[in-house]
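tool=predict chain=A
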Amino acid sequence: MSSAEPPLKKVKLALIPVEAEGFSLENLGADIIIESEYGIEIERVEEEEAFEEEGEAFEEEEMVAEKASGGRTWRTCEFGGCLYRTNKASNLKQHKAAIHSIDIVWHDCPEPNCSHKTKKEGHLKEHRAMVHGIGVTWHACTELGCEYRAKKESTLKKHRARVHNIDVRWWFCDYKGCEHKAKENGQITKHKANKHNIGVTWKQCPHCDFKTKQSSNLNAHIENMHNISVQWKQCPHCDHKTKQTGHLNAHIMSMHTSK
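tool=predict ok
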């Protein structure tokens, strides 16, 4: 019988003020990012035991501090402009490593020819499962007739919402007069860029003046117009080949399908 999974909790990594400088939001592994007029609040869902890895020394220190003060003792981050605080010394240490790259202990992937490294051992475990298929716990969709499964429970949740309309959280476009909604926030971001030209990041072709809002469109353009990284679609019935799946299907229908 397998042991019960450790409980989960939301861990507030930081409240980053708008004017703060000296760090990046990229590659933080945050599950929740909340923007407000005060700054950007970052949270991550972690196993309860993940913040106990620093050993009993921290726990003893915290107990002594709390007894001395008669209650909770807050530890604040001294990094310039950071408003993060916690009552656990181990949390503060991990916050400083994750957000400000202070006293980092890197965890390297042991798999051959893999240069991946991460600041948290739990993230390394996730990397090995997602990339190398090691220690994977599959999460299967329980809907009748659906064979979908995922390596992450959050991915399964998105699948159930997207495909089966279960526990859907709708995201709405905030552009005036627009009633568009989507099941994922990323879809709203793309919609606003495509339809309202909000937050557009143009993808420029390195070989000509063509540009587009979508990376997939740029890749298709480079493949079709410049013959770079072409993936030919071969007809299974003859020597015909084409760059587009749609063109191949049309060829098969017109040339190899009995009328």
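The two ends are 60 Å apart (CA to CA). The longest strand covers residues 8-17.
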